[in-house]
């Protein structure tokens, strides 16, 4: 019996089927966690079965997912308070689904409305939340006195790699391909990002031997559109002279905290990268700079196009993803306490776009006032494009001082 529908008797009969649906476990939620009560909500159960969430003041929704202080759309659409649908009809309160919300991770937020003597589900038209940045985020974050490069510039802007699209390195000219020598020859290892003419930022887990890694077996290529092809006009190839893996990275127990590393590169004649249409630096955000959840960013890489594929993508691919809140990603229905303050999560609203195996170390770039900032390094995730399992990235802004110390660059 539905005991918490606050409708008139006439509406209650029509809404009974809908309200009962509110009581069931979300069929798309992970089976081992059931319905999760977010934001401090308490699960109410009968005979061991979850019935509803008792939400604290200021939160509502079937999982306490709606922050009633917000009136704009964030990320995949769990956090806002709007009481009318796109047609202007007032949202009905069915269970705890009173406002426009997105408990089932649909493409758009929605609510129930009364139309033509029946209750229907209708989408809501909610504005996007604005970015939450400090005023100096667009300042050049790392400079090299000898280069004179201006970071974050590319030939065009494309926000289109699992579920992504083929791309061109001119759109992501900071993209680096890291190779290592194996018994059968040179093999692609990881992606990376050019943060200054002589330095590549990548992931620590790309080097399983840690500090014992033989840097003489490593090489880096910039300006590369295709892994298995050589373009003598655009490719710039380098050896690695130094490798710095974060001192507190320890993956022995599957822990990816502090998953960040630096490579110093040099050409055969001892020079660093040369700026071109296909080779440019990306900006690094300063300490503790962050973007509002829901911000659209782009991830690029040469990794697998789908989970289970036995081959990497031959060509550079890109995908558009949205930043998720720390609270959501560290909730039990997502990754729980595996998420640390040094990580951030991003995924697409329909879960179709994601980084995958082989994209590790590559860039998660967010554009601010037409400048590209490296906010994340591809780190880990469960599978590729799985529901409730977004990509997890190293939060670059937490390592601004570490990068300056290791590279000797100025801020």
Descriptive account of the structure:
The chain is mostly beta strands and 411 residues long. The chain folds into 2 domains: 115 residues, no CATH class; 243 residues, Thrombin, subunit H (Beta Barrel). The chain has 3 helices and 19 strands. A hairpin with a 2-residue loop joins β1 and β2.
Compute the number of helices: 3
Structural class: mainly beta
The CATH homologous superfamily of the largest domain:
Trypsin-like serine proteases
Count of beta strands: 19
Overall mean pLDDT: 76
The number of domains is: 2
N-to-C SSE series? HEEEEEEEEEEEEEEEHEEEEH
List the strand order in the largest sheet.
14-15-16-19-18-17
Q: What is the alpha-carbon Rg in Å?
A: 24 Å
Could you give a short account of the major beta sheet? 6 strands, antiparallel, barrel
Kindly identify the CATH topology of the largest domain: Thrombin, subunit H
Tell me the β content: 25-35%
CATH architecture label of the largest domain: Beta Barrel
Can you give the helix content as a percent range?
under 10%
- The 3D shape can be described as elongated
First and last CA, distance: 63 Å
């Amino acid at each position: 019996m539905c005991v918490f529908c606050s409708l008139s008797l006439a509406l209650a009969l029509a809404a009974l089927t809908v309200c009962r649906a509110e009581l069931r476990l979300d069929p798309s939620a992970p089976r081992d966690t059931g319905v999760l009560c977010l934001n401090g909500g308490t699960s109410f159960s009968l005979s061991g079965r979850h019935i509803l969430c008792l939400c604290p003041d200021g939160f509502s929704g079937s999982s306490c997912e709606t922050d009633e202080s917000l009136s704009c759309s964030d990320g995949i659409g769990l956090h806002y308070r709007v009481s009318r649908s796109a047609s202007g009809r007032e949202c009905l309160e069915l269970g705890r689904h009173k406002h426009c919300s997105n408990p089932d991770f649909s493409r758009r937020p929605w609510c129930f409305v009364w139309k033509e003597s029946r209750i229907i589900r209708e989408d809501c038209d909610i504005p996007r939340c604005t970015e939450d940045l400090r005023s100096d985020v667009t300042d050049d974050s790392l400079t090299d006195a000898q280069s004179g490069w201006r970071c974050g510039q590319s030939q065009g802007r494309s926000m289109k790699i699992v579920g992504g699209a083929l791309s061109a390195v001119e759109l992501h000219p900071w993209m680096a391909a890291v190779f290592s020598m194996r018994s059968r020859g040179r093999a692609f290892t990881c992606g990376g990002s050019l943060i200054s003419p002589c330095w590549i930022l990548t992931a620590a887990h790309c080097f399983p031997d840690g500090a014992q890694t033989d840097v003489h077996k490593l090489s880096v290529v910039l300006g590369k559109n295709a892994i298995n092809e050589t373009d003598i006009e655009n490719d710039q190839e380098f050896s690695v002279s130094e490798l710095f893996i974060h001192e507190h990275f320890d993956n022995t127990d599957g822990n990816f905290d502090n998953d960040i590393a630096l490579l110093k590169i040099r050409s055969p004649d001892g020079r660093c990268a040369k700026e071109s249409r296909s080779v440019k630096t990306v900006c690094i955000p300063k300490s503790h700079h962050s973007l509002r959840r829901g911000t659209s960013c782009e991830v690029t890489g040469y990794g697998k196009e789908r989970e289970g594929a036995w081959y990497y993508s031959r060509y550079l691919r890109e995908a558009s993803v949205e930043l998720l809140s720390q609270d959501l990603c560290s909730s039990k229905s997502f990754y729980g306490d595996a998420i640390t303050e040094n990580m951030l999560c991003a995924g697409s609203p329909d879960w179709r776009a994601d980084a995958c195996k082989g994209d590790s170390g590559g860039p998660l770039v967010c554009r601010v006032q037409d400048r590209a900032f490296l906010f994340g390094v591809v780190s880990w995730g469960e599978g590729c494009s799985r529901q409730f399992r977004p990509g997890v990235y190293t939060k670059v802004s937490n390592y601004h001082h570490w990068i300056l110390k290791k590279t000797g660059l100025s801020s």
